[in-house]
Write a structure and sequence with these properties.
- This protein has 187 residues and is an alpha+beta fold.
- The chain has one domain (17-179): Chalcone isomerase.
- Helix content is 37%, strand content 25%.
- The protein is built from 5 helices and 6 strands; from the N terminus they run αβββααβββαα.
- The chain has helices spanning 17-37, 89-103, 108-121, 155-166, 173-179, and strands at 47-56, 59-68, 77-83, 130-136, 139-144, 147-152.
- A 6-stranded antiparallel β-sheet has the order 1-2-3-4-5-6.
- Helix 2 (89-103) packs antiparallel against helix 3.
- It is globular.
Length: 187
């Protein structure tokens, strides 16, 4: 066999059935990431809506994907964040409180209490780590790389937390639009 760059060329191999399967599996990976890579099984009736990226000062922070039923702004739904930067869990909790404060509707004492609860649940993340928030009526559950971390069983918290991405007044309107863009080709 010749090596490329040494005067020869790589031999042309036919696209075998095995290679086709590997290629198709790689293409499908982003669409099965929620259940396979993250180890999470979607609640029945949810399907993929949209996905997009969140950037801060031009740097990619995370990629987000939304799974929901017929109304992507009402539970049950699941929001997956695949991080592309290392961030401390406390910083994720603080940023969440800041965004909830901007949207209004919760007093400062409640926001501070929620911040403490989130800081206990949200781990430090690195590139490739996945935090998945599951919004069920009356509660929010959080999974990290496929493992349940815990839940905050307060309807107001769940509503305020997921509003960070889904409320029309979000600080990331382009990401919201991408998440709410239904992709009927996906399961």
């Amino acid at each position: 066999m010749h090596e490329a760059g040494r005067g020869g060329s790589l031999p042309h191999a036919p696209f075998s059935a095995r290679r086709r399967l590997i290629f198709l599996a790689l293409l499908a990976t982003p669409f099965v990431a929620l259940s396979a890579r993250a180890g999470f099984t979607l609640p029945q009736g949810l399907r993929r809506w949209g996905s997009g990226a969140y950037r801060r000062f031009g740097f990619l922070v995370y990629e987000a994907t939304l799974w929901a039923g017929d109304d992507p702004q009402k539970p049950p739904l699941a929001l997956q964040l695949t991080y592309r930067r290392s961030i401390e869990g406390r910083a994720i909790a603080d940023a969440s409180v800041k965004e909830m404060r901007k949207l209004g509707g919760a007093d400062e004492a409640t926001l501070q209490r929620w911040g403490v609860l989130m800081a206990k649940l949200f781990p430090d993340v690195r590139d490739g780590d996945v935090i998945l928030g599951e919004y069920q009526p009356g509660t929010a559950r959080f999974h990290f790389n496929g493992q349940l971390r815990g839940e905050i069983a307060e309807a107001d918290f769940a509503r305020h937390f997921f509003a960070i991405w889904l409320d029309p007044r979000t600080s990331a309107p382009e990401l919201r639009a991408a998440l709410l863009q239904r992709d009927d080709r996906q399961g």
